[in-house]
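Kindly go through the following sequence and its backbone structure tokens. Advise at your convenience whether the structure tokens fit the sequence:

___
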Amino acid sequence: MIMKISVCIIICLALAADIVTDSLDTELNSKEIATEDLKDLLFTSMQSIISLNDLVTGLSKQMAELTILSAQTTAKMEISTTETSIATASLSRELEDLKKKISTINENFTDLESRKKDKGPWKCYHYTESDREWRANHEATHAEMCERVTGGKFTRGKNDLVPDCGTCWCCQDQSALIPVDGGWGFWSDWGECSAECDGGVQTRERSCTDPAPAHGGVECRGEGEESRECNSEQCPESPDYTMYIHCDDVLTIFVDGAERRPAGLSNSGTMSTLNIPASSELIAVKCLENGGGYGIIGSVQDAEGGDILVTDSSWKCSNTWESGWSLPGFKEGNTWRAATDLGDGHFMIADHGEDIPSSNMNKRVIWTASSSDTAVYCRKTIK
């Protein structure tokens, strides 16, 4: 718009100059003019032209300044539009956050009103003997007494008639109390490990007391106890035990389900000696009787020569093979009975008793209850 106005002014000035020139030509042609008058007229015309040129120059400068101002105004308007857009987006986000907070407050209020309706309006307190003693010892007023028995928040005092409560000593309006949901306290330190090695378990606890649930608030969610493994490193090997055992006729030895075959095991006239780990849990033996005498006798001793166990009636024996019978976890059924002691006069005591060490000499010859059994399975738990 500014450019159009400036062009119009320049055109008008040019037309005015042409008019002046034409007027001069007309004056010259129409009548004689004195030389001095002509000079004055020319001088005046030149001044007019110079003034017009100055006016055009001034207008050009103003037009340039107006162009710069217009560009600056446009830039400021663009910046203002951008800032307005950013501010609008920020306000929209804040409005959404505010709506969410209002929704949460409404939900909490609805939940609170529901809890109030569930638990009834009043709770009444009646003095106990210990309450009366406390009041006497402290020379407390009735108001102080109510503060004590209601936990510091009583609503009505002695002889007040309260709905659903009757006449009571101290009454508390439960509907005025805000429910407090329970919160977990800190975990305790880890307890002692259940084993010194080979893996144990230790536990720790926390309580729902930070805060404790009150006035109809919900209990803490989650577990109040957790456990973890501890002392998983392998225990050092204990000194081996030594097993001394003899069977008439053919002996098979199992330690924790694994068959062990020391040298000379198949020789019916030879006592078998076997080192077994002190961590062993179960000894199991199988004895086949090939005719003539029969029986099993033996002992297990520690590194100092003390008896860990000897053959006696505490062993369990059966005449029936069962899957897993030599394993520690095997469940003994009806076929498994206490071993039968074959008596002091048994030949194996005389023939092998001295070969099988025992610190208390209580080892016995054992078998099943039937002398006709030719295959006997006996087992004994070590620990």
